[in-house]
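Weekly sync, protein design subgroup
Attendees: M.S., D.O., the rotation student, P.L. (late)

Item 1: inverse folding check
M.S. brought a backbone from last month's batch and wanted to see whether the design step gives back something sensible before we order anything. D.O. pointed out we never logged the input encoding, so this time it goes straight into the notes. Structure tokens as presented (378 positions):
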């Protein structure tokens, strides 16, 4: 090995995620621009989301910590890497290669000397902060009650999911949760909209320990709470406030809402809670919610599971022609810890999605007739 190759080996003796962090940190606007993902030039002004078609701007590229963080009233939020993967339909390795080619490939601009060459070590949340957040999860859960027929949670689920009857124990009814609007620039919380009924669901990590609480705010009649407030960039425009929220995170990578016990190695997964419940009602497959596409991509399939059914949302195509729901399911199957299990036959996987674009299992269940049932072959 010559001297130059030896130096290169030392430089890249780091994990792929660390290498991407070293290259892209503080440069996500450039990374996304080179990849053809439009995020706008003004971080304080909303623009059109690159992940879906919208008539009103609902996307903000905040990039506060230099990690490319973004927020969309429709698509949720995430990091620059998450946005790149979703917008271009790439898995992590493919997105990482794209970034490396941008900054280290032939003809790429060299890295400034001020960028450290040592492996990047991601900062960890302080232990006391994690414990405070775990305590807040426990407090919220203890304040919630078992769901009973006639309360707002039961009425909400029955109205959304035809044939639904039994509420899993991981779902509870909180009679009065505080609801806050979008925090203004530099503030921690937004406007206080008072106390509202809420469906709370326990989100657990791969070890079954609670790592967050999912909240769906409701009305007393069992409808999803619908509130609006003026857009901070244009007060003449009212924007919808999300009725579904997670509590402040402790950054668990693998998480899910375990709505049922797997049966003889069989498990289904879906994004939302209602989607997973609808899948169970329709197919009989015990199904967990993975909350969102990020949870789908990162889902850690238990070793005891030998048959997995993915009930993927048939999302509308993004501006770059990607179906986020199906792309997330395929990225899960391409992961290096999953693909070998499929190849060797220890894990079989089916992806099931409604035929109609822009629908999920809730929509499908509401429209389906007995003559249109799937043959799942499981």
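Designed sequence read out in the meeting:
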């Amino acid at each position: 090995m010559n001297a130059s190759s030896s130096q290169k080996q030392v430089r890249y003796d780091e994990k792929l995620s660390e290498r991407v962090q070293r290259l892209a940190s503080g440069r996500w606007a450039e990374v996304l621009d080179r990849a053809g993902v439009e995020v706008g030039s003004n971080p304080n002004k909303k623009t059109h989301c690159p992940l879906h078609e919208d008539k009103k701007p609902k996307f903000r590229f905040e990039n506060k910590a230099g990690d490319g963080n973004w927020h969309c009233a429709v698509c949720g939020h995430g990091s620059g890497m998450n946005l790149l993967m979703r917008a271009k339909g790439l898995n992590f390795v493919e997105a990482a290669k794209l970034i490396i080619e941008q900054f280290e490939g032939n003809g790429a601009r060299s890295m400034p000397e001020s960028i450290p060459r040592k492996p990047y070590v991601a900062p960890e949340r302080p232990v006391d902060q994690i414990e405070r957040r775990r305590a807040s999860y426990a407090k919220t859960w203890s304040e919630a009650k078992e769901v009973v027929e006639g309360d707002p949670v039961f009425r909400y689920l029955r109205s959304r999911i035809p044939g639904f009857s039994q509420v899993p124990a991981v779902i509870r009814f909180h009679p009065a949760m505080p609801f806050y609007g979008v925090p203004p620039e530099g503030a921690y919380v937004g406007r206080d909209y008072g106390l509202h009924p809420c469906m709370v669901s326990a989100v657990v990590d791969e070890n079954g320990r609670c790592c967050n609480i999912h909240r769906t705010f409701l009305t007393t009649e069992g409808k999803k709470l619908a509130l609006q407030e003026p857009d901070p960039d244009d007060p003449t425009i009212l924007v919808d406030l999300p009725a579904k929220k997670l509590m402040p995170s402790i950054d668990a990578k693998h998480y899910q809402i375990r709505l049922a016990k797997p049966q003889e190695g069989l498990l289904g997964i879906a994004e939302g809670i209602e989607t997973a419940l609808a899948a169970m009602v329709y197919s009989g497959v015990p199904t967990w919610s993975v909350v969102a596409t990020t949870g789908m991509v990162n889902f850690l399939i238990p070793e005891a599971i030998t048959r997995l059914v993915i009930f993927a949302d048939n999302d509308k195509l993004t501006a770059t022609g990607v179906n986020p729901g199906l792309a997330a399911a395929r990225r899960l199957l391409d992961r290096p810890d999953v693909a070998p299990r499929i190849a060797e036959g220890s894990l079989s996987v089916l992806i099931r999605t409604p035929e109609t674009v822009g629908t999920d299992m809730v929509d499908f269940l509401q429209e389906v007739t007995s003559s249109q049932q799937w043959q799942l072959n499981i």
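Discussion: Residues 1-12, 106-122 have pLDDT under 50 and may be disordered. The first strand starts at residue 59 and ends at 61.
Action: P.L. to compare against the previous round before Friday.
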